[in-house]
Amino acid sequence: xxxxxxxxxxxxxxxxxxxxxxxxxxxxxxxxxxxxxxxxxxxxxxxxxxxxxxxxxxxxxxxxxxxxxxxxxxxxxxxxxxxxxxxxxxxxxxxxxxxxxxxxxxxxxxxxxxxxxxxxxxxxxxxxxxxxxxxxxxxxxxxxxxxxxxxxxxxxxxxxxxxxxxxxxxxxxxxxxxxxxxxxxxxxxxxxxxxxxxxxxxxxxxxxxxxxxxxxxxxxxxxxxxxxxxxxxxxxxxxxxxxxxxxxxxxxxxxxxxxxxxxxxxx
Length: 267
What we know:
Layout: H1 13-26, E1 32-33, H2 34-41, H3 45-57, E2 61-64, E3 67-70, H4 79-82, H5 87-98, E4 106-110, H6 114-122, E5 129-133, H7 136-142, E6 148-152, E7 156-158, E8 163-165, H8 167-174, E9 178-183, E10 187-189, E11 193-196, H9 199-210, E12 212-218, E13 230-233, E14 240-244, H10 249-257, E15 261-265
Helix pairs in contact: 5-6, 8-9
């Protein structure tokens, strides 16, 4: 019998932010020394070594003599670490996005990602609402609400995001018509459009927005101006973007020029 690898104890927002900062520091692919990690993150040697050990256990990095480098397969931060970062900002973005929905019977699609999950939480007290999602995290949180009708797609589970992706998920989304699709993003820019780290996830998300009357992208300021591997949608197909006041103003203007309405929440 195999034993599951231990997950990092990233329960606090402070530690989650530190682990994400550590992965960002290693993102260039070069080996980073332990001394630099200690200096950059302002932590003790013991703390740095503990964090490195936790992340190595998950296959996100490889420790070397005197330092560490990013693992070849680690292209995105797992959702369990991202959930603790910028939580208040994501709540404000989600609450603004939730105000776009009309009253009365309505159907929405909600994709994966921590900001999209906050949109679902902002809608838990709505009545006459149908929510279609491919996020196991979101479905688990809102599925027990008697006032909501929750539909979950089939598909293959992506370990990093707990999303269902692939043909089964795409077919479910393609068979349904929804009023609004709430789409998270790993990158959002005028040049790249809406992008994500995984090409299969990108195709699933494209199917989600394909039959939506309105597409709303929810993305905190760290995603603005960023381009990742796989394109989900061109900005011409996005109706609204909701982000926070930390986003670069010049890039927001370029995004507006591509067509979407841009809504900025103050943080």
